[in-house]
Amino acid sequence: MEFDDKESNEASQSGANRRGYIRVPAECPVIYRIVDPAAPKGNPKKKIHHVPSLPPFELTQTRGTEEGLNPQIIELILWLDWKMNYLFKALTKEKDAEIFPYQAVIIDLSATGMRFSTAKEVKARAILEFEFILPILPFREMSLMGEVVRCVRSDKEELSGEYEVAIEFRRIKETDREHIIHYVVKRQLQLQREERNTR
Fold it and tell me: From CA 164, how far away is CA 168, in angstroms rounded?
């Protein structure tokens, strides 16, 4: 994967700047590969034809609660739409596996990094390339790179036998960062709404 320096930010931000971004829970499947620093640069995905993702549901892009649509119905439609995209991507799972041999599930996400669970132990400072679908309209297939900050065996019962890997994004495009920030804000509002409803 190659990025234009003009469109990207180095991840050499200060710790204070990194802490300024909110991190939210996000249960998104992700596929990834470990980048070989000695390998020639280029985009390996050019070798394999990918079936495109389904287009987003137009109704939810053009209408909102101002037209009387129930917010819960909108969320259900969004979830179904995201699920269809995910299932559609699953049709190319074998082809994706040729490029991205490892699978994981995102635990939490922010504009500067993420944490995911995976069955594979990954060395600290390894560079990973990964893909996942950001579940927000319009749906975005994110293709990013990051450096492993730490990898520890999970002590959570539901993640028994797996590792939790913390990633810091490297040379992320500002447009991609903005999409993630947009998702984080909406996810945070959703969590706050769910918390109020349980009181």
Answer: 13
The one-letter amino acid at 58: E
Q: In the 8-state DSSP scheme, what is residue 5?
A: G
Q: What is the pLDDT of residues 54-86, one digit of tens each?
A: 334 333 333 344 445 676 676 677 667 666 666
Distances (CA, A) of 16 to 20, 30, 81, 148: 6, 28, 37, 19
Rounded alpha-carbon distances, angstroms, from residue 78 to 73, 81, 82, 136: 9, 5, 6, 8
Do the beta carbons of residue 151 and residue 142 sit within 8 Å?
A: no
Residue 98 to residue 92: CA distance in whole angstroms: 10
3-24 average pLDDT score = 52
- DSSP bridge partners of 144: 130
Name the burial class of residue 4, with classes exposed (0-12), middle (13-18) and buried (19+) by CB atoms within 10 angstroms of its CB: exposed
* pLDDT band per the 50, 70, 90 thresholds, residue 197: confident
pTM of the model: 0.68
**Which candidate, 119, 112, 89, 122, places its Cα nearest to that of 23?**
112
- CA 49, 52, 54: angle at the middle one, nearest 5? 160
Question: With helix as H, strand as E and coil as C, how does 76-107 read?
Answer: HHHHHHHHHHHHHHHCCHHHHHHHCCEEEEEE
Tokens for 39, please give them.
């390998």
Residue with more model confidence, 138 or 62: 138
